[in-house]
Amino acid sequence: MTHLPILIITTSLLVAFVLPLLGRHFPRAVEPLIIGIISANIVQVSGLLLYVNANGTFRYALGGWSPPWGIALSIDALGLFMILIIQSVSLGILIFARDDLIHEIENSLKPWYYTLFLLLLTAMTGLSVANDFFNVFVFMEISTITACAIIAIKPHPDCIEASLKYLILSTLGSGLVLFGLALVYMVTGYLSFDFIAESLPNAMNLYPLNIIVSLALLVVGMGIKAALFPLHVWLPDAHSSAVSPSSAILSGVVVKIYAVILIRLLYTVYGLDILAHIPISQILLTMATLAIFMGSLFAMGQTDIKRMLAYSSVAQIGYIFLGIALLSPSGITGGILHIANHAIMKSLLFLAAGAIIYQTGIRKIKDLVGIGYQMPLTMGIFGVGALAMVGIPGFNGFVSKFHLAVGALEAQQPVFVIVILISSLMNAVYYFPILIRAFFGPVNHQMKFDQLPLGMVISLIGFAVATIYLGLLPGGLINLAEAISQFLLSRS
Prior knowledge:
Layout: H1 4-25, H2 30-55, E1 58-61, E2 72-75, H3 77-100, H4 110-129, H5 133-152, H6 157-188, H7 193-206, H8 208-226, H9 235-241, H10 244-275, H11 280-300, H12 305-326, H13 329-360, H14 371-374, H15 376-390, H16 396-410, H17 415-440, H18 454-472, H19 475-491
Antiparallel strand pairs: 1-2
Helix pairs in contact: 1-2, 1-4, 2-3, 3-4, 3-10, 3-13, 3-18, 4-5, 4-10, 5-6, 5-10, 6-7, 6-8, 6-9, 7-8, 7-10, 8-10, 9-10, 9-12, 10-12, 10-13, 11-12, 11-17, 12-13, 12-16, 13-15, 13-16, 13-18, 13-19, 15-17, 15-18, 16-17, 16-18
């Protein structure tokens, strides 16, 4: 059991490099193989999560060399929770992608797309359990390059431009992170998070400016990669122009991994005692509030459905950072819940938009009049995602927003309850008109069933079921998020 973490990473890495060769000689084996390896990863991570819940967190030392000389992975509930989201959401997206990619990219590029996709998942898996700055930086760069590549693989000028913009800004974020970790290394002499956490209190007394500047650099660097407003400028182009499976994985998972890294840094490396001397909480709360409102305002003004969903993601990232910055048990729980819930419902919405484009070629919101009669299943499922995004009770979005509101009250900052309520109304302003146009506008077509391949239908239904299930029966997910919250606060 203890060797599973490195096995998941190494096997995924090996399979990723085998896929192009397999695609040349046995092209029909590529998709079953990548779906099989991700399914196996889900089973292994689920087993690891049960093991950690029963036996507690442990460190896996690669090659038997313990830190600070060797590399150790942190196998805890937070990392395993994120890996489970990454692998599970990716499985649903890949099932959808089998048929959708035929219309998006050349058939000869599909094995290369799957290689990039699996490398991206492997990098995010590594980031979830990395317990030192060196591996965080290495996996972060792999994630950045592969994320840019799955945007640029579509032969369209908009995709190339969006990928280049993403690469430039993400490289800027990487540079800031590198300077930040260099400052930490300068005053502690360590790259391992555990050893840094032990050394920082003393370093704070001797070199307070280094610690403050390092934290500022790390927050801004991770903020760029997580698309936290106003550091989000790369996201709308990247998410709206990419192929639909890429849009789903980028919005649903990729931007969240950097929020998870920041959670680990703030709570388990720097700790609440150091954060009490730095107004980082107030800064993040301000940025989160701006993200929630400005992301929604920009979404209201969009005419392209995928671009509207992209700006909606900016707002939803704000909810996650709001939970992180409240520094209260329920606030952290709500932020962690929203990482999972948003991954599911935003993947659903991007894939539903992809299905509309697949069948009709329509991207403009104004052209969706009566689409509910042409594609009742897809638009019904889109409606599930929309209701969840607004935060209607019975859907998973309500669960995380409720905990964020409770967290705001725990932190004695009720103004953020008002922020959540107003923002939910703003969400309704740009989601509900789409549903009204689809089902209640002028009817030019007779009702007929969606003309979609079976894999796309299965994927959409799976995400819709998960959205409703986690809204009606969220107990298991809430218990896990609360356990992670307690773990983080106990380490601070």
